[in-house]
Design goal:
Elements (H helix, E strand, L loop, with lengths): L13 H15 L8 E2 L1 H8 L3 H14 L2 E4 L3 E4 L4 H25 L2 H14 L5 H19 L2 H24 L4 H17 L3 H20 L2
Antiparallel strand pairs: 1-3, 2-3
Helix pairs in contact: 1-3, 2-3, 4-6, 4-7, 4-9, 5-6, 5-8, 6-7, 6-8, 7-9, 8-9
């Protein structure tokens, strides 16, 4: 009887992960807008690495939905289509409704304090890109407070695409964004803290709908 195959030793992937983090941050910071080309040679030179880690990093970002590759165009930052936007909104709605119900039912005081802390950071945000990062952090805190590991993993799977969604939203219209978003999230956090499930669900739905309306021009 033959011996079972041994596990192949894993390669170190730290450098590729770091490159992915740098490129992701650059996308979220607005350095590479939707549709922008991501050239391996240029990225490797800018980051002081070989093309191998860059190639691995772009594949990682492609799995996140941040990057799309075509054989005749290479890699570029994802531009969300109308179908992408509709699918993200509907999936986010389904996930968020469950998260809100769980937070209202069983979140600890520490969980709720973590949500409040993000709102406080929102109130100090200096520009639209920082506000979008805080917006994503707010929803990270809500999913963490749900205490549902698989739900949180489902959120993480679309997190980067939702970040793109919000960047596209401010790209269409950022008027009043910095002024209004903190108060909007304060109301969301207050409804969660009050354990008012019906109000929280209504406010979260309105929050999603407002961003969708801006992006779709309704």
């Amino acid at each position: 009887m033959s011996e079972p195959a041994r596990v192949v030793p894993a390669r170190r992937r730290g450098l590729a992960d770091e490159v992915a983090d740098r490129v992701r941050d650059a996308i979220f910071g607005g350095a590479y807008p939707p549709g922008a080309q991501l050239r391996e040679v240029e990225l490797a030179a800018a980051l002081g690495v070989s093309r191998g880690p860059v190639r691995e990093a772009l594949l990682k970002l492609e799995r996140e939905g941040l990057v799309r590759s075509e054989w005749h165009r290479g890699a570029h930052v994802t531009t969300l289509s109308d179908v992408d936007v509709a699918e993200l909104d509907s999936l986010r709605s389904a996930l968020e409704q469950l998260a809100v119900r769980l937070v209202v039912a069983s979140a600890s005081d520490a969980d709720l304090a973590a949500i409040d802390e993000v709102v406080e950071r929102m109130e100090r945000a200096r520009d639209e890109h920082e506000m979008v990062r805080c917006d994503i952090d707010f929803h990270d805190a809500v999913y963490a407070a749900s205490g549902h590991r698989r739900l949180n993993e489902a959120w993480q799977a679309i997190r980067s695409q939702v970040h793109l969604f919000l960047l596209a939203r401010i790209g269409v219209n950022s008027e009043g964004y910095l002024a209004n978003i903190p108060a909007e999230h304060r109301r969301l956090a207050s409804a969660l803290r009050a354990r008012d499930g019906e109000k929280a669900l209504d406010l979260f739905a309105a929050h999603r709908g407002q961003a969708l309306d801006v992006l779709t021009g309704k």
